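PROTEIN ENTRY
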Amino acid sequence: MHTQLNINGASHELEADSRTTLLDALRNHLGLTGSKKGCDHGQCGACTVLVNGRRINSCLTLACMHDGDEITTIEGLGTPDALSPMQDAFVRHDGYQCGYCTPGQICSATAMLEELRAGWPSNVTENLEAEVGLSVEEIAERMSGNICRCAAYPNIVAAIAEIAEQKT
């Protein structure tokens, strides 16, 4: 099946079986190995990427479903020489430990801040009529789809909180 994927600002032609997940297309067909295959069941978040600005688990969606969509992977957020603010904060706060979950954590955190700016409440948002604040509980709830087996959560929360403060 022929699919046109727009990844990190570049167009990619993909010839793959219609059953190929977006994650497998990124890693195995296009060589973008930043997104990780953790559980392959949508439970760990290691494969999180942004599609049209929204975070998704790329292991749970088919590549052919994203023909023409704008896809951003960890490689599209920054480079080793020019880290995104969130990547830089993760490094400074030691929010990466073993690093396996980090690409998904950073993609998810980046999208989560956009959701917050758009006023989207979470399950723990107390006042739906007020501007949503970013407490530790809010961050934990909004990032609950991303698991870190090294338990770097306090450092991840600190990195996210720092970037959130800078953007407000």
